[in-house]
Amino acid sequence: HRSEGDEEEQLSERDKKQSFEIQGADMTKISKNSIMGNDRKSFGLVFIACSVIALLVLLSSVNNSNAHTLRSSGSGINEDVVKGGAIKRELGAKDGNISEGRSISFEIANLKGGKTGTVVIKTHPEWAPIGVERFDELVDSGFWTDCRFFRVVSNFMDQFGINGDPKVQAKWRDKPIKDDKVLTTNARGTVTFATSGPNTRTTQIFINTSDKPDGNKFLDSQGFSPFGEVVSGMDIVDEIYSGYGESPKQGQIQMKGNVYLKKSFPELSYIVKAEPVDFESLKV
């Protein structure tokens, strides 16, 4: 699919001695003679009091250290927490909460036999927040309208995402995004950005269509990070025209857009429109 610390407060010996200072009396300076005789009882009481205070200081330090581990560093996403197979993330206060993702309806025309159908893709920010943000930008800008599925390999993937207008595509070509960690596998129905190397994702994406037990798992180790999944219409995905295989030239699409594709590959399936929907309301 290649396209274009907190440090826990540990009391040193010096710190331990300093922690016994109370009401101006420095226990580290008390001589051996002052500890003997009549001062022994009073010193014992003071020593006990100081010991209690030192213990309270130490407990407070440990509690503060533990509390810090529950807070964000103030920016970005904290370590991923995997529990029960579900991937969860903590966000720093600066970033707010990760959204639950959106469901986007794609109306696709020129399917096999000339049919039209609808595919719904649900995004998963917990899988790939950077990828989801770019995908949402493309949806909200109307980028997907009239985009062709220019690379369709049966039982592998369906690739699209080069705009039919070269001027529109040019605006996005020089805006690559950073990679997301691969947190879920490229199983059948997952949606992933194409890439030409590290941190080169722009607009091209593909739907994994392999029906093998492990899907396209081999892509995981290559850095392809799924950001969403088809939640409705996978049967429509399987009807996307695949007769041209990998024949369309991406360079020509970039330069000439749909003028090139319509003339040389008229049977390609294409997106009529893409818009957010309430997927739950679509269920019967």
Report on the structure:
Helices cover 29% and strands 18% of the residues. The chain is built from 9 helices and 10 strands. The strands form 2 sheets. It has an 8-stranded antiparallel β-sheet. A two-stranded antiparallel sheet has the order 1-2. The longest helix is centred in the N-terminal third of the chain and has 30 residues, at 39-68. The protein is α+β, with helices and mostly antiparallel strands and 284 residues long. The protein has helices at 13-18, 32-35, 39-68, 129-140, 166-173, 234-237, 250-256, 258-264, 279-282; strands at 81-83, 86-88, 103-109, 117-123, 151-153, 157-160, 190-193, 205-208, 226-232, 270-277. Mean pLDDT is 76; it is low at 4-43 and 60-97. The chain is elongated.
Quick synopsis:
The chain is an alpha+beta fold and 284 residues long. The chain is built from nine helices and ten strands.
Secondary-structure map with pairings?
Elements: H1 13-18, H2 32-35, H3 39-68, E1 81-83, E2 86-88, E3 103-109, E4 117-123, H4 129-140, E5 151-153, E6 157-160, H5 166-173, E7 190-193, E8 205-208, E9 226-232, H6 234-237, H7 250-256, H8 258-264, E10 270-277, H9 279-282
Antiparallel strand pairs: 1-2, 3-4, 3-10, 4-9, 5-6, 6-8, 7-8, 7-9
Primary descriptors:
29% helix; 10 strands; single chain; 9 helices; two-stranded antiparallel sheet; 8-stranded antiparallel beta sheet; alpha+beta; 284 residues; elongated
